[in-house]
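#structure-requests
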Amino acid sequence: MGITDMTKFVSIAVMGDIMIDIDLRIPSLESLIRTRGSDLPTEVQLTQGGSAANTASWLSLLGDRVVLFGAVGEDIAGQSAEKAMQALGVVPLFARDPQAPTGMCIVITEGDGSRTMIPSAGANANLGMAVLDQLWPHESLSHFHLSAYSLFHQQTGDTAINALQKARDLGATVSLDPASHALISHHVSAIRKGLKLSNVLLANQEEAEELFRSATSLKSKLLPPPEEILQELLTLLDTDSNRDRVVVVTLGEAGSMAMSDSGDLVIAECRLVPQIQSTVGAGDAFNAGFLHAWVPNHGDLQLALHEGNSTAAQALSRVGASPMSGNS
């Protein structure tokens, strides 16, 4: 079956960054600083990464029909990313950039599972709308998910906004992951524009707080109760359609919470992970689990949060962001 035939049966489309991750494990960032100018031997793994690619992979693993929009270079890394997606059952609809390499990211995982990422966007910054128009599936699209990393680049950001609008026109529900709390303040306008075309926000606690601060111009370090934060974030979402708006926030070891237009706050405890290997990709896995449960009926937020927490727990128990990554 060709790509054109396969996309006729797609239920979820994901757009965003396609990366090759260079995973490094070190005791701590402090240990790295102490050895500055010398050596710090460690183990290194090359794994498939990128927030959008991770979410698409977990969605496919959960049984959803998924296509992934993105851009890679005309290089071995791009070929590897395409093969990795196909192996996981994702339909990769990749533009090939002859001028830029496939994106790469150095991922530093500390002994406690904390992670720091140093990305190089490469071809991810150059996805044009002409390619998207050529590849876009025109039938059976239930949901469109965007990683906001796409919004952080001018050309790809314009393409992403057009894609959100096209998904809405097809009647699909739309979700947005803010991607990075450290970058939100640098791209407030682009994220606001994306949120206005989305009816689901999937954020971690730091991202939610940063979005709240930017929306309210809050300078104080003190924040209001979670209910007030989620209520404010709901106002940032799509108001031009009849679709129910939902804000979802992950809370690390405290689990996750969500609020819809009904105004009720729903909380779900996290699933116990005996030994956290790495936090890399856990948020992407949560997004996949939540959407897997929520997209079919847009109903039970408690169930969707539980599914998100459960899928995140699987990611926490392995090294690397992708379901293809090893368990140690």
